[in-house]
């Protein structure tokens, strides 16, 4: 869109769209088929995979990395400063070289709900789901649904984003593992030691 601010050094993949008032900073890379919504911000050298969606007014600060198929909801924020200050202890305004940016890594297929905040340095696992308004202060496991302030895992979800249903008949007493099924797709998963993995047919 003509009103978008896309730096000339940014790389925009084929079929990607940058909407009104969005800003894509220098050195940022967008894969193919991405959608950057109205007023969204993509910081310098941020990397987006293919088919990533940033909804309106989402803020993604450098050096974040978003893998293929990631969804960032409206007004969500991916931060990059663990100990933010405007000035140093002497009262001098801090500049870019006065602190170390720590990016957020969002793995394949993960989704971040509206107005969620992800703290600098956190990794969001594959196909996980961050609830709207959550504040994520630690790494999120693959397929976890996390909610709250600070965010905690409340359920497991599959690739479809639908909460999984436990299959009690499949519970293994010997190993302590639990088995889950997606009510939408029928895909099966196994939970062991607070991690979830897909069962390959």
Automatic annotation (TrEMBL):
SUPFAM superfamilies listed in its UniProt record: Trimeric LpxA-like enzymes
One GO MF term attached to the UniProt entry: transferase activity
Alphabetical keyword list: Repeat, Transferase
Keyword Repeat recorded: yes
A Pfam family assignment: Hexapep_2
Cross-referenced InterPro entries: Hexapep (IPR001451), Hexapep_transf_CS (IPR018357), Trans_hexapeptide_repeat (IPR050179), Trimer_LpxA-like_sf (IPR011004)
Gene3D superfamilies: Hexapeptide repeat proteins
Entry protein name: Acetyltransferase
Species for this entry: Yinghuangia soli
């Amino acid at each position: 869109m003509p009103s978008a601010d896309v730096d000339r050094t940014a790389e925009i993949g084929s079929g990607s769209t940058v909407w009104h008032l969005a800003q894509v900073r220098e050195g940022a890379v967008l894969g193919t088929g991405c959608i950057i919504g109205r007023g969204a911000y993509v910081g310098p050298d941020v990397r987006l995979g293919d088919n990533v969606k940033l909804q309106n007014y989402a803020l993604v600060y450098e050096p974040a990395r978003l893998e293929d198929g990631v969804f960032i909801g409206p007004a969500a924020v991916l931060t990059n400063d663990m100990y933010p200050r405007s000035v140093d202890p002497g009262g001098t305004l801090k500049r870019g070289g006065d602190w170390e940016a720590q990016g957020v890594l969002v793995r394949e297929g993960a989704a971040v709900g509206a107005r969620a905040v992800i703290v600098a340095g956190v990794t969001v696992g594959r196909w996980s789901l961050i609830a709207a308004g959550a504040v994520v202060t630690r790494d999120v496991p693959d397929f976890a649904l996390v909610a709250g302030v600070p965010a905690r895992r409340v359920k497991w979800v599959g690739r479809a984003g639908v909460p999984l249903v436990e299959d009690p008949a499949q519970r293994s007493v010997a190993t302590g593992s639990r088995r889950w099924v997606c009510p939408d797709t029928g895909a099966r998963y196994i939970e062991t030691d607070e991690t979830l993995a897909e069962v390959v047919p």
